[in-house]
Amino acid sequence: MAEKKQSTMTLTDNDSGQSYELPVLEGTIGPKVVDVRGLYGETGMFTFDPSFTATGSCKSRITYIDGEKGILLHRGYSIEELAAKSNFMEVSHALLYGDLPNKKEYDQFVENITYHTMVHEQVNYFYRGFRRDAHPMAVMCGVVAALSAFYHDSLDIWDERQREISAHRLIAKMPTLAAMTYKYSIGQPFMYPRNDLSYAENFLYMCFGVPAEPYEVNPVLADAMDKILILHADHEQNASTSTVRLAGSSQANPFACIASGIACLWGPAHGGANQAVLEMLDQIGDKSRIPEFLERAKDKDDPFRLMGFGHRVYKNFDPRAAVLKDSCHAVLKELGVKDPRLELAMELEKIALEDPYFVDRKLFPNVDFYSGIILSAMGFPTSMFTVLFAVSRTVGWISQWKEMIEESSLRIGRPRQLYTGAGPRKYVPISKRK
Length: 434
Ligand code: SDX
What we know:
By secondary structure, the chain is mainly α. The chain has helices at residues 39-43, 79-85, 88-97, 103-114, 123-128, 136-146, 160-185, 199-208, 219-231, 239-249, 254-265, 273-284, 290-298, 319-335, 340-352, 356-360, 368-378, 385-405; strands spanning 8-13, 18-25, 33-34, 63-66, 71-74, 77-78. S-citryldethia Coenzyme A (SDX) binds at residues 235, 238, 269-271, 273, 297, 305-313, 361, 363, 366-368.
């Protein structure tokens, strides 16, 4: 078959009249990219894109998002289908290895994860160093980074088997560490993982079980938790995933890289938004105050933003928000919980989506808008919401990290800048300074 002609883009410097041919690369689906890797060498100029609104940082085969159409695919499978028909272990296998597992692969993967859920007993002592009222994300940053102090046998990032063991350990131990973080905050004893429970059931058991009596996991809650884990698992090159990739590009060990992702996710503009949504709904309190807060959200002089709304990529409904909105009703009905915040959230969504400010800017509810209401109904405090996001996103982070390490040309990520500071000047002794 004739070689496909490489398409190019011509860049002309109008000052010098010089033109440059830049290669245009095309993926499977989605926007093409202009390859600017040679730009500085040819032109002596950098590109400039401070918050990476138009920058492709890597090639990836894991997740595809079409923000205009509200499409999210993991290894080609739609998030709607995965949420409705799959489970978190299957989705984790697909993210990590490239496809949904067959029965044998599934059973092997589940066994690998199950038998890595316990943490070294010494890890318990890290918790004793934190105040009981420490933010759970502060604790998670610490204890996850500390794992690299324990697993010296799986820190060699160039060894495929060690990379795989680290990935299994991280996916398996995150729920255990998260549950320990929650238990520590409420002064209850840690619960050891159980190998007879599914991933989601085990997490709920470790969070809400107590040694004093048996704990039966509610299957509806386990199903909702599994769905929440699926919906938060990966999301292309978002801020925390890009942080993990950048940390990984320095050849840091996988535990340190995941800890850097946790730190980035904590921000209220990112994964911390699920906690901020509930705090916002509590602040609004009543439907009658929605107009007041919408006005504040539009006021450039007011730092208030409508939390759980807007997205850098989605300029349509975040498909995950739609699934979570449905799950909200199912979980609250099952629990017989009437959370006025759900009614408030739905009214807020309705009014905002009729308001030109939000419509013109294509600001729709995102994944964080409804998730907190479900988690609150399950019994989690708002401070634990972003921890749950991190538990799920760990498989996305480690899959993206693995994909990067396995690229033939791993190079350290090192962006440049547009320098606007002082030009060269001589040192002035303090006696001569004004
Ligand atoms: C996640 O990237 C990912 O994929 C992230 C994530 C994932 O799975 O990894 O999807 C998870 O982080 C979801 C987003 C959670 N964050 C929030 O809900 C916080 C509230 N949202 C905003 O902070 C904001 O929408 C961001 C941070 C999500 C996106 O910011 P952008 O892309 O930089 O958009 P922007 O700030 O340039 O906004 C464009 C305009 C601005 O107005 P103008 O200057 O054009 O007049 O929209 C306005 C903004 O002021 N705007 C909002 C708003 N979000 C944007 N105005 C009010 N309320 C908001 N929520």
